[in-house]
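[recover] target loaded
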């Protein structure tokens, strides 16, 4: 499993890449592996301000449908439209091309509550 050093993680297996006061959110390599073949992604929250832990969309795999949760509070600025026609990008590259949403971070202090790569590695290996 890949765990990039420049990301923060949630216990629900979402990641956050911070770029100034904005961030990109996706699901971890571990999550995509556990879900299996991803067939559909739905995000209808663009333009909404959501709190940390609120669902911003759903991800459907052959086996199951799961909610995706905000790692920090913020406004959903964009959805990665490439995932509409090619959701399998998440299985192939969950950290770069497979980002799901771009957000404007509302509460930067919440970033410190996320797991660093080592803490996340410990979580998934437990």
């Amino acid at each position: 499993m890949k765990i990039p050093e420049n990301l923060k993680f949630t216990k629900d297996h979402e990641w956050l890449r911070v770029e100034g006061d904005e961030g990109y959110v996706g699901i971890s390599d571990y999550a995509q592996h556990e879900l299996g073949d991803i067939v559909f992604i739905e995000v209808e929250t663009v333009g909404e301000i959501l709190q940390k832990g609120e669902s911003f969309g759903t991800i459907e795999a052959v086996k199951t449908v799961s909610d995706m949760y905000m790692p920090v509070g913020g406004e959903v600025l964009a959805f990665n439209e490439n995932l509409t026609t090619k959701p399998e990008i998440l299985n192939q590259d969950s950290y770069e091309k497979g980002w799901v949403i771009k957000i404007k971070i509302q509460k930067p202090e919440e970033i410190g509550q996320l797991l660093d790569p080592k803490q996340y590695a410990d979580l998934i290996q437990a």
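[recover] notes: The longest strand covers residues 55-61.
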